[in-house]
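Renewal narrative, Specific Aim 1. Our central claim is that a sequence can be written position by position from structural information alone. The example that follows is taken directly from our test logs and has not been curated for this report. It begins with the structure tokens describing the chain, in the order in which they were read.
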């Protein structure tokens, strides 16, 4: 009986040659496509003439770089659980909105607190991340303030998933997009959206500190107490207060005392080896009942200590930025201000604070915090947040490089 062998497919020499030629052609084509694409982007950047398309989902006209159909995002998939998604939908751009491709994101305590304690997460999956710097990738039809390719920074509001900074492309209202001040590196601009903006608005909007007039110490004997002088927010607050004419006293560890002194604190109380009462007494002795403004950047316990340290006679404005329970007894002469950074996004008039901050940065009057840069993009964010949680960065700001 004749045995029938399955026929082997025969691939002759010439066939391999054909396959190799085809592969070469495909490779050449995709390289030239890539080149064409980068030439196109470069061309758009140079001419600054946006292409205009219509975004069907929002039915508005947008000017855009070549942006992908999907993007990568670090999402909070379930309570307490992050996941990297490679197919996360691209955010759509409304007529007065801007899409930014993130180059750097700043990490903040709120990022891990909201996930660990499950707040500020309207639904799952959700994207967190409050501040970033990058390049304008699309603009809505009514936007005239920026064009494609401009380098910018922004500060975002958690309620819009498109504005979560732990994704490749972020969409925000145009008034919340700011140019990177001269002399500020793009990676450092990623820390302006939370710490710098919070310090600016807390002082100028809520605590009634005047904008800088150029004459230091115009408020004479009055003091601002910053409990947590080395926190990134405290570093900005110290400098802005000094430039605005207010004398600053801070509470720090011995290790960060010189940092606050360099930034302009008139007196630094070193807390190491002292009881809480001793720290409070030292503040009261130095300021002689003249602390009329205070910020707490540490927590409920130090918020109470700050209340013990401020003036007992004069009116006091106090901003507990790191939580103070509603049950805390507050002296009658103290007004407690609830700092709501969402107001920057919800109320356009608050742009004046970023303008004022921008002027100080443009003039090189504010020293930026030392950065601790982390590579690895979205994959490195969780590790960075763990570092932040340990709380031993000694005044360094964690920034993740996205690309
Ligand atoms: N919108 C808002 O309401 C808002 C905005 C920004 C920040 N915040 C809150 O403000 C707080 C600070 O944020 P951040 O990012 O600026 O902080 P950060 O840079 O992470 O602060 C870390 C620093 O805190 C200092 N610290 C720790 N315990 C202290 C204590 N008992 N007394 C004095 N200093 C102490 C440590 O420096 P030493 O070595 O000097 O102790 C440490 O280097 C956080 O709770 C954050 O959630 C709120």
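The sequence written for that structure reads:
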């Amino acid at each position: 009986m004749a045995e029938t062998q399955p026929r082997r497919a025969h691939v002759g020499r010439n066939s391999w040659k054909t396959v190799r030629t085809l592969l070469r052609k495909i490779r050449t084509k995709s390289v030239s496509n890539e080149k064409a694409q980068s030439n196109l982007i470069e061309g758009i950047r140079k001419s600054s003439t946006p292409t205009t398309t219509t975004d069907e989902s929002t039915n508005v006209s947008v000017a855009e770089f070549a942006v992908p159909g999907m993007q990568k995002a670090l999402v909070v998939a379930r309570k307490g659980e992050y996941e990297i998604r490679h197919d996360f939908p691209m955010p759509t751009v409304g007529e007065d909105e801007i899409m930014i491709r993130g180059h750097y994101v700043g990490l903040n305590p709120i990022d891990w607190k909201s996930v660990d304690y499950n707040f500020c997460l309207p639904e799952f999956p959700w994207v967190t991340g409050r501040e970033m710097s990058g390049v304008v990738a699309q603009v809505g039809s009514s936007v005239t303030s920026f064009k494609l390719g401009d380098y910018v920074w922004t500060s975002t509001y958690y309620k819009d998933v498109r504005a979560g900074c732990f994704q490749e492309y972020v969409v925000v209202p145009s008034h919340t997009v700011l140019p990177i001040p001269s002399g500020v590196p793009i990676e450092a601009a990623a820390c302006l959206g939370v710490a710098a903006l919070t310090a600016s608005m807390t002082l100028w909007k809520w605590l009634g500190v005047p904008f800088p007039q150029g004459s230091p110490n115009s408020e004479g004997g009055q003091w601002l107490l910053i409990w947590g002088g080395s926190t990134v927010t405290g570093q900005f607050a110290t400098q802005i207060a000094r430039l605005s004419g207010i004398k600053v006293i801070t509470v720090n560890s011995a290790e960060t005392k010189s940092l606050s002194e360099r930034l302009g604190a008139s007196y630094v109380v070193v807390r190491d080896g002292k009881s809480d009462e001793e720290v409070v007494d030292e503040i009261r002795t130095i300021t002689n009942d003249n602390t009329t403004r205070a910020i707490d950047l540490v927590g409920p316990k130090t918020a109470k200590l700050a209340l013990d340290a401020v003036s007992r006679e004069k009116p006091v404005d106090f901003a507990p930025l790191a939580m103070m329970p509603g049950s805390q007894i507050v002296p009658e002469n103290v007004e407690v201000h609830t700092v709501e950074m969402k107001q920057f996004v919800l109320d356009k008039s608050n742009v004046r604070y970023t303008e004022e901050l921008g002027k100080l940065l443009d003039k090189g009057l504010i020293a930026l915090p030392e950065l601790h840069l982390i590579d690895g993009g979205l994959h490195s964010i969780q590790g960075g947040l763990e570092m932040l949680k340990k709380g031993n960065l000694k005044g360094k700001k964690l920034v993740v490089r996205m690309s």
